[in-house]
Amino acid sequence: MFETINMKILLPELILICTGLAVILLDLVLRKKETVAFIGVAGALLSAYYNFSLMSLGWSGAVFQNMFVLDGYSSFFKLIFYISLIITIFISLNYIKTERVSSGEYYSLLLFSASGMMIMAGAADFMVLYLGIELMSLSLYILAGIMRERRTSNEAAIKYFFLGAFSSAFLLFGISLTYGLTGTTSIIEVAEALNRLGPAGRNITLIAVIFFVTAFGFKVALVPFHMWAPDVYEGAPTSVTAFMSTGPKAAAFAVMGRVLFYAFGALQLQWSAIIEPLSIVTIAVGSILALSQTNIKRMLAYSAIAHAGYASIGFLPGTQEAFAAMINYLMIYIIVNLGAFAVVVIMRREGIMGEELSDYSGLAKKNPLVAFLMLIFMFSLTGIPPLAGFIGKFYIFMGAVEAGYTKLVIAAVIFSAVSAFFYLRVVVYMYMKEAAEPSVLIVPHSVKLVLAFTSIMAILLGIFPSVLLDFARASLLG
Amino acid sequence: MGIEMKEVVFIVVALLTVVPCLIVAFSRNILYSAFSLFFTLLGTSGLYFFLDAEFLAIAQVVVYIGGVTVLLLFAILLTKNIQEIKETNALSMKRAYFAGASSFILLASLIFLAVKEWKFFEAGPGTDYPFLTLNQLGELMLNKYLLPFEAASILLLVVLIGSLVIAKRAVK
Amino acid sequence: MRDGDAIRIDIYRWIVSGNFSVSIGILIDRLSSVMLIVVTSISSLVFIYSIGYMHGDKGYARFFSYLSLFVFSMLMLVLADNFLLLYFGWEAVGLCSYLLIGFWFEKKSAADAGKKAFIVNRFGDFGFGLGVILIFLTFGSLEYMKVFSGAGAALGQTVNIFGHEVDTITLICLLLFCGAMGKSAQVPLHVWLPDAMEGPTPVSALIHAATMVTAGVYLVARCNPLFSLSSTAMTTVAVVGGTTAVFAATIGLVQNDIKRVIAYSTVSQLGYMFLALGVGAYSAGIFHLYTHAYFKALLFLGSGSVIHAMNNEMNMQKMGGLKKYMPVTYATFMIASLSISGIPGLAGFFSKDEILWRAYLAGEGSGRILWMLATAAAFMTAFYSFRLIFLTFHGSFRGSAEQEHHLHESPAVMTVPLMILAVGALAAGWVGIPPLLLEHGDRIGEFLAPVLGHPAGEGLHSEEMMVMGVSVLVSLAGILAAVIFYIKKRDLPERTASAFKPVYTMLYNKYWADELYEKILVSPVLRMSDKVFLGFFDGRLIEGIVNGIPSFIGSFSRGLRKMQTGLISSYAFMMAAGMLIILGMFFFF
Predict the structure, then answer these.
(1) Over chain A (478 residues), what is each successive 10-residue block's mean pLDDT?
(2) C583–A210: do the CB atoms touch at under 8 Å?
(3) Would you say residue A3 lies in a domain?
(4) Is the peptide bond before A385 cis (omega within 30 degrees of 0)?
(5) Which H or E run includes C246?
(6) Whole-angstrom Cα distance, residue C45 to residue C63?
(7) Does this complex have an ipTM over 0.85?
(8) Interchain CB distance below 8 Å, A214 and C575
(9) Containing domain of residue A384, as a range?
């Protein structure tokens, strides 16, 4: 009666979910609260280990009648999620103690959110995809508001929740339209149905695609669906902001790529035409608005918006090569961004928020190493060669130029130059201004580890770009 | 050919769904809104019957009418001074007009396209839905749809944790 | 390597995208191997020397890290097999030079000198950057091999600049030479080098005498297949080189700061090298680069030893009679001075003679003028070198009693490198003895021939003897003049100075080049950079843009900001409106 279900493929997700459950239970028992964080890290590592050993054993494939897949595509994105998750846990260790957040709920929600992302990346059916998105988002809504006694945190959570629900409505509308047209929710079957139908019903399908783009555009914060991002990023705890601007963003790109390429591949020209104006407007708005920010989290929020715009250029050519450039870009971006946020996190000390740009005055004198690392991250985000950020942008632009989007790329490069102003502004504050008051900056060991990893990657991936790019290409093949 | 009995019932049920829905949106008394929601949900359940989805219709009655609406009413009754909140949020009328107009355009264009490509709908593979018994439904839930089912359970767990976080007293 | 083969190793491809690829590759051929010998030998000696010289400085670790970074960058510059990597190395050595000039940044003059070097080099590097871009546009590649092999095909191509058709190769060469002029301190971009002496003395020896400043020479020699195709560019190189050789030498005659004399000497000698390159004698230029590295590094390190003993006193008028306190420094300094003056048998003689001979051969008219310029510069070189020796080591001590008490020979860690360099200054030239004196003598010219080719032109043996004889005579005359001026008749310098007051003042003030630039270039640039460059670093420009004083972006940014109302309803409204606009775009337009 029952088909034999190959549960092995689900093992990475199951491990992470079980770790989440274990964390929330053990938090009640264990006295030393850091332990649960390390359990979380161990769970993530174990999950990653299983994921990639399954891949290397050739166990990739689909389960539950094509509801969920394990393939190179999802594995690459999962790697991003693991990095994002583990680094977030490391930078949270001291931060949530300072903010007096209870660790059991915090870490388990992080783990659940990451499981949601993994389900998203592997989803081959709209139902699974939707549930993955909701699992990820719901955990994030709570994480954004986890500092209950702070008003900005509550505000962030409420805004994120309402608007997220609003975007889910768009997503569901898109899914139901697609279901109505094709009679299936499976991504592969949708693609088959669209091929079978040919040009008939293109217009209604296109409406469904627009709904999808709107919903995913909300999650990755494309203009004009980006409005939530600055408020939420600013209000949420910094460690959560670091997480939100990396993992979930990449997860949203994962489902966006899955849906657009695999389900609606037949309408590539049309959806490219939708994303083209969105991407350039996103870059423009992100770069220009970041200029007038004085709060570093808000500045990084606009920077994240601009970067989503750059990444979405990777969709336009509709080729595998350009898409490889895009996931390459995402990987580089999340690593560098996490590094930058790690610095923002350690700026928060007892009694000092450390979120204003002026708090960075004279950092180079106080702690030259941290200032220098921040400089590397800022340079990399700007895209100054030979750092990783340059490589990411370079391949994205190159792909777009080859596909004939020359004007778009010229505009993007100009805004990239504009973005140098606000990134270097941080450097100016660190190196050229005098510190207002002398205060010590203590860098916890866990954050040291994060800073070392992210900065080394920011440099290495810039000098040896082909390693990651080849991995991205190989991932897309299988 | 006159109007059949079934169609009369459908129109009544549809009106039962839509009219209270408008009251939910426009009533300035939150208690009226809550009660109207009760009828809207009931109407929706009726519409499910018309679609031969008996299980869904019953689940709708049990969960939404029996659970959600009652919870909503309790919440309203337990909140102090709720009667005084009669203002809706400060959305300007200009925007409201715009939103209304654009929703109308969206709906109109959808209908227009649907009519224009009507043939396509008839040819669609989804026209013939199999009738599912409760047993078959349960089997599907634990077989093909096990993953969404379980994912939904994790989702609910997260909701539980979330309400815990919100309700819990601050640590020290 | 002995066979003249080049070894080219592609370490890895940095960026590959379609037709465009940038590889990180190294090229070791006979030219780069000569450069390698110079860079590695001098830098290792300077490292050893610095252990003693920088002892006790609070930036000890910082100094060595900069120095190591410099050596790495210099090796990258020399070993690059494409223009992009060369450019990276070029900028990196520039950065190190800038950091090391301003090493004692607490001292205002040092910080200013660093800034000056930076700004002056910007002029040159701007040209260089344009040249690299033009090379890519013309040849579609930045690899040496592809560019040089395609050079012949590009001959006759023109570029339209403001309506004028300009020969592409000439333009490329001139732009590259622009960079070379900046880095190698040729007139009129020479002003930064003497000021660069504010850096620690080992830095002056390594970067501002032996290696980095010769990068320009290396660049022109490396691009010889391009330069050879453009007579305009060659003439420019020769004229600039010859002019610089004389110009800097005249200034060197009257300076009193011990390091500045050597600095002007460096500028002058670099001029010699360019002169050689300009007349097509590439190997002679590289030969001089090679010998010059030893004796000039020796001079600088020797002067460093003196300064060390004199407790950071650099004015020669306050020295004198150091011979008996510092015998090793004196002896090695003497060898270097004899070498740079071109006394037969020492390194400098052979390379300088080769250049003079090649200049002489370059043509009846122009070649003779260049030769005479170079010979005049040789006379002055001998004069100021020995003026330096006599003022510093001979006579009686003119400094304070306290300084005299302090005088001592430097420790072995400093004198041993001096002695090793002295061997170089003595013998490095023996690889290039002209065939006239020794059969199969010009070993270095033969060695470099696969890369740099043979210089054109043959002359009579009698002429060559004549040129050589004149050069020896002139050197001896220079030394003799110095003896007369500074040993025999001690009042003569004073009298001459007052007799030729305007000339003396002009030379002493270095032709007022600094003041001239100050008026026409530096102050406008500084004023501009106050707004742009410094303002940028002070954050004023960025603040300006953000606060939107006149700027469009600023006000636009603030305008856009107003849309961020903070209200959920307006955010949701924006989302829906955005979606509708996209929808409208597709179905109604």
Answers:
(1) 64 93 90 88 94 84 84 93 96 88 90 96 93 95 89 90 93 90 87 82 84 94 90 92 94 95 90 92 90 88 95 92 93 95 88 82 83 92 88 91 89 88 85 72 90 94 88 86
(2) yes
(3) no
(4) no
(5) helix C231-252
(6) 15
(7) yes
(8) yes
(9) 267-478
